[in-house]
Task: structure prediction
Amino acid sequence: MQALKHYMDDGGLFDELVFNFCVAEFVILLLTAIVMVVWIYKGIAPQIKILKIAANNVKEGNLDFSVATGGTDEMSEVCNAFEDMRVRLKNNAKDRLEDEAEQRALISNIAHDLKTPITAIKGYAEGMLDGVADTPEKREKYIRTIYNKANEMNTLINELTLYSNIDTNKIPYNFQKLNIHSYFEDCIEELGMDLENQHIRLDYANYVDPDVLIIADPEQLGRIIHNIVSNSVKYMRADVASRIAITIKDVGDFVQIEVADNGKGIATKDLPYVFDRFYRADASRNSAAGGSGIGLSIVKKIVEDHGGKIWVTSKENEGTTMYFVIRKYQEVMYE
Result:
């Protein structure tokens, strides 16, 4: 070996061989680097271009595109992360538009429903000022009408306040043990007087044991009953004697309350939406009947916050029945 090296050194061949080897190695490394750069560029450049276009779309407010990929490399993960961000932005934008639409609907409904009693109050007040109510009977009638219309306005404002609390999950609750018999006897007595003045018959049946207790907020439970009954009153039929029936049943761990009427009923296609905020099954009919469109959505929220559920059955021109359940109070036994 030493002899070969001595021979090549003598001819300068060894140095040339080393030089050629280095050059060849450099060329191989250079070609490899070029191939790698081209391969990486071809793999990354399209995705970078897609991300650039996507970023420009987002900047312009256009979120109707997709950059999702099925790859597992780093750039694919970046694209998928960008896609997740786009979907969240789109959903947030959609929710914001829906909230804005709901706010506009609420303002429109409240404005319409406040205008009616305000107009009536103004008309009857002007009648009293102009001397139209010239007898004690007329004056009493005018004052009572003004009082009732003011109560309507107060109810709408209370609904609006409660709606605001619902939207922020800040409904104030005062849960306590309630005897189902005692509570509903008082409730029915109050409802009966109001419905009698409106020439609506109220039937009541309670099939629960007298000592059964529930855990509920008495004020909010009363709001549930009031809102359901008020909704029934709005859509009574003129061709039959109006009737509302409230039935209390024992269904195991729950007490079930049913509120049935013989009113106009609800179309089958509208039943899935009756508890949605601002939903009105018949815009023209509801416009005449009034209401903010949030009464039953408030009812659903309160029932669910009590650990219960609510549902409805109805047939057009036959009537509607609202059902909801409230959990019974049960003593926890410790051993």
